[in-house]
Each structure stands twice: as C-alpha cells, then as structure tokens.
Amino acid sequence: MGIEGKVALITGGSRGIGAAIARRLAADGADIALTYNASAERAAEVVSRIRETGRRALAVHAPAADPGAVPAAVDRTVAEFGRLDILVNNAGIFPYGTIDELTMEQFDETMNLHVRAAFAAARAASPHLGDGGRIISIGSNLAERATRPGLSLYSMSKAALIGLTKGLARDLGPRGVTVNVVQPGSTDTEMNPADSAPADAQRAATALGRYAAATEIAAAVAYLAGEGGNFVTGSTLTVDGGANA
C-alpha cells in the first residue's frame, strides 16, 4: 500500500471512524499517533491493540477547546517518532438544530473543531511533510446535500473542509503532498448507531440500503494514504452508499 514505515497522526482516533482508521493504517504498516478529548481509557485501548501488531503507537490528549492542542500533538508525534507523513483530520461532533435553535456557543465549538483545528493541524504538519506526504480530512456527504432541517451548522462546517482541501492541494502540491477529503454517509458508530431511531430513514436514503461500517471509511482513507492516492489531490471521495446519487 505504500504506507509501510510511515507515521500517521489521526485526530479523534480513540473511537468510531478515527479508531478504525488508526487500526487500518497500522495494519498497513504505519506507526500511529492519535489524539483524544475525553476518553483516555478508549485511547489507551486502541494504542494497546496497535502495539500488539508490532507497530508503534502513541495517544495524545488534545482537548477540543484548546487552540494549541492539535499543533502540540503534531510536535509530540514528530518528537516521539522522528517524522510525520500522514495527517488525518477526523475529530468531530454533530450539532443538530434549526437556525432558531442553535446558539453562537455551538457555532464556535463546531467551527473550532471542524475547521480551525483542521487548519491548525495542517499548518503545524506542513513543515514535516515531504514528497508523498498526505493530509486527509473526514468530512460528510451532508456537506453537499442537506437532506433535512437541522443540518445548517454541521453541513456548513463540513463544507468548509472542501475549500480548505482544494486550497491546501495547491499550496502543497509542488512539494509532492496530496490533500483530500473523505465524505462518509451514515456510518455505524456511537455517534450514529445503526440501531437508533433515525436509522431506518437513513438506510432508506442510500442506494445500497444499509449503513457503512467504520472499517469501510477507513479503507477509503488507506487508499488515499497509500500508492493509490499518488495522483489524487484536491478531491472529495464520497463514501455514502449512494445516498447523494
């Protein structure tokens, strides 16, 4: 896959899609650093499982409210492993509510986590990324199509990642660094479990009639992180079972 011996940093890597990405990139031969916000125990579990495979792994506490936390995690990763090759901006939340219900505090929290932190992480990682380096952000298919009321803030924040991706692709392309965004649809995680009340409607909206597994999103990230992504940059890869078709 072209990942063997590389170092990857995954933000929000203690659970859900982030944990699946961490495990997949480790299985493909990368050493892994991951950040977490609240669950040190969950982060330690992911790290332990990766170390059992023979790869190096590190968990870094990076609270979402701390603007310097993600750049500090980049520095810690480089100090620990001596390099950084792959950055995956995955940490996220799901604010839900109409424009009359959402607060400015929710706006600030969402934009800080989804946009500011991704920009700060890319800025901190950039000096360490050489030819073949990767920045991959986890967006959402809802960035392109808001399917119901209550998604304005979430969709806006994820749409911003598309613009960031395209701009960074131009900035970093001359150095051989690719930048892309993966846009999952409904994925079976704690944030959006496949057995929840809204799940049937979400399944019905897809062409395949089911949720994604987190490992399927991780496989798309692994493709972009490896040799398959050598000539893919500034692009969005939508993995939503045809929900946006």
UniProtKB/TrEMBL annotation:
<protein>
    <submittedName>
        <fullName>3-ketoacyl-ACP reductase</fullName>
    </submittedName>
</protein>
<keyword id="KW-0560">Oxidoreductase</keyword>
<feature type="domain" description="Ketoreductase">
    <location>
        <begin position="6"/>
        <end position="187"/>
    </location>
</feature>
<dbReference type="InterPro" id="IPR057326">
    <property type="entry name" value="KR_dom"/>
</dbReference>
<dbReference type="GO" id="GO:0016491">
    <property type="term" value="F:oxidoreductase activity"/>
</dbReference>
<dbReference type="InterPro" id="IPR036291">
    <property type="entry name" value="NAD(P)-bd_dom_sf"/>
</dbReference>
<dbReference type="InterPro" id="IPR002347">
    <property type="entry name" value="SDR_fam"/>
</dbReference>
<dbReference type="InterPro" id="IPR020904">
    <property type="entry name" value="Sc_DH/Rdtase_CS"/>
</dbReference>
<comment type="similarity">
    <text>Belongs to the short-chain dehydrogenases/reductases (SDR) family.</text>
</comment>
<dbReference type="Pfam" id="PF13561">
    <property type="entry name" value="adh_short_C2"/>
</dbReference>
